[in-house]
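Q: Structure for this?
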Amino acid sequence: MSKVTEKFVDINSMNLKKGELVKEVEELCGENLFGCYQCGTCSAGCPFVDDMDLSPDEVIRYVILDRKEVLNSKTIWLCAACYTCAERCPRNINITKIMEALRQIILRKNIDRTLLTKIAKEEKETIPQLAFVCLFRKNVG
Ligand code: SF4
Ligand code: SF4
């Protein structure tokens, strides 16, 4: 059973070819996902793993297995691009770039993760400007 319970995107309407998720991710990030031997080092050092529905090593496994529900995983948006995982991977796989590739697959379909209209007025007044800049760079296509 999948650990991904969120239904943020309608995967069926994204025109993703069967069995080609890994190819698309590899083309976008330039990493060889099949080099991963699932040691879990990336997940062990990730500062946000406790809040993720899939750990970073599980994200890689889902992509390899063409489990497209990975695109509905909270993990790819929670990733702070801190590069800890990439620094520690014994196979020199840049997981940070893989997370970005997965976000790009969604954003390039003109699907925004964050809508300004959904942020409450009170929050808009208290959230630092820098946070808004980061948010829109990462979550808006
Ligand atoms: S650290 Fe590298 S080899 Fe180990 S599970 Fe993560 S991506 Fe795979
Ligand atoms: S880059 Fe993302 S996945 Fe990797 S350790 Fe940092 S937050 Fe976790």
